[in-house]
Amino acid sequence: MAYVHSYGCQQNVNDGEKIRGVLMDVGYGICDNVEQADLILFNTCAVREHAEQRVFGNVGALKRLKEKNPRLMIGICGCMAQQKSVVDKLRASYPYVDLVFGVDGIDRLPAILAERIRRGKRYLQDPVQRDAVVEEMPIRRDSGFRAWLPIMYGCDNFCTYCIVPYVRGRERSREPQAVLEEFQSLVAAGYKEITLLGQNVNSYGKGLAEPMDFADLLNLLCQTPGDYKVRFMTSHPKDASHKLIDTIAANDHLCKHIHLPVQSGSDRVLSAMNRHYTSAQYLELIDYAKEKIPGVTFSSDIIVGFPGETEEEFEQTLELVKQVGYMQLFTFIYSRRGGTKAAEMPDPTTHAEKAARMERLLRTQDEVAFPRIAAMAGQTVRVLVEGCGRTPGTLNGRLDNNLVVEFPGGEELIGSWADVELTGSRAALLTGRAVTNA
Ligand code: SAH
Ligand code: SF4
Ligand code: F3S
């Protein structure tokens, strides 16, 4: 039996689904409990220091399992395994880790396992970067109604804080035909929500034999007949075009929600981050989307305490948050990543000051979002029922605009569409009652 745990972004979660598919192909069963496993794989994330520490902690906790079951194999893969310093540390200090392979090693996993078993000793691969696009990998998806669909891999943007271009390699797009075939097979299999993935989906298509842009890809995919919705992430503001927004406005399959990470509201900080847009350009794009897409909602990622961020620059971020009126924010305190440009920048602000800024940002976001969410009461919306709600006897449904509503209902509705009348809200969570089932 194999246990696979993925950390980090959806790209990594999708890689974890492929790892499970590959393992099932060579005869493994999949379990969700480490105690039952004779192969444990941690598919890791390196984006912040905290993510890495969690992995080291969780790997350390496996030592006792290995003592109980010497046949157990423990493996580390994913983005952390793309860093030489991590592989060296595992080699030196974690003797009970048997396997290490990077993000491009999934298709070779059967060979890696065979090699480990044949040699009878550890197989720790130093990072390699193949920059490959491997098609037709077996996959075991976590859900039967929501699917991740990568359209491109890697990143060439080198935002100065970010490790991703170093661990995920150069940007490369899948051929539109391969994306379309996978998309059609998902719709045919009854998937209701398909999320297209890439670190910067708006630069899709560069370098293809016949270049194609992201809006064209969306139009191509959405010609597929069926009752489904499409989401995508992540859009980089520097490459998000009016054409993309017009496409979202014109197509009913595309959710009226845009995740558009701004990172900071200060032009000095944005430039130091190498983001290639100003707050004015960002706001112009937001205004255009608000004008063209009635009811559109936005979410964003924000980094607090980038090296040298002043109080005034931070306040510009607060201003921008208010101006956009995001429904959802993913907020991070800057984490220094060795090898990136920002790691060399002077960073005089204390952690306590950064944590205080984070608190203020979260409070501002609540003040912006909660009244807007509350004001939705009275509307009837179509939602995809994702699972059980926190309150016993309720379900959680996701709206087109990415908000979640909790409403009374039975588990048999999970994975289907439902019409829900919104009756109120608690913080960011809407509450409602089912009207009919679509
Ligand atoms: N490609 C996506 C995001 C990938 S990482 C994009 O460009 O938007 C997800 C988020 O993690 C980033 O948007 C950023 O807000 C955050 N992040 C990345 N590196 C970080 C770091 N070193 N410290 C803190 N947050 C970071
Ligand atoms: Fe990182 Fe920037 Fe690439 Fe996103 S676009 S993955 S933040 S380098
Ligand atoms: Fe983390 Fe790798 Fe994704 S570093 S955020 S899992 S691309």
From TrEMBL:
Record's cofactor remark: Binds 2 [4Fe-4S] clusters. One cluster is coordinated with 3 cysteines and an exchangeable S-adenosyl-L-methionine.
Q: Which residues bind [4Fe-4S] cluster 1?
A: C9, C45, C79
EC top class, as a word? transferase
**Locate the MTTase N-terminal domain: which residues?**
1-118
Q: What cofactor(s) does the depicted protein rely on?
A: [4Fe-4S] cluster
* Binding-site residues, [4Fe-4S] cluster 2: C155, C159, C162
An example molecular function term from Gene Ontology annotations? tRNA-2-methylthio-N(6)-dimethylallyladenosine(37) synthase activity
Domain Radical SAM core, which positions? 141-371
Compartments annotated for it: namely: Cytoplasm
Q: Which CDD domains match?
A: Radical_SAM
Looking at the record, the residues that make up the TRAM domain are: 374-436
Keyword RNA-binding set for record: no
Major subcellular site: cytoplasm
Q: What is its EC number?
A: 2.8.4.3
Judging by the UniProt lineage, the source's domain of life is Bacteria
Q: Which HAMAP family match?
A: tRNA_metthiotr_MiaB (MF_01864)
**What this chain does, per the record?**
Catalyzes the methylthiolation of N6-(dimethylallyl)adenosine (i(6)A), leading to the formation of 2-methylthio-N6-(dimethylallyl)adenosine (ms(2)i(6)A) at position 37 in tRNAs that read codons beginning with uridine.
The UniProt subunit note reads as follows: Monomer.
Concerning its family, UniProt says:
Belongs to the methylthiotransferase family. MiaB subfamily.
Which protein, by its recorded name, is this? tRNA-2-methylthio-N(6)-dimethylallyladenosine synthase
| Native source organism of the sequence | Gemmiger gallinarum
Q: Which gene encodes it?
A: miaB
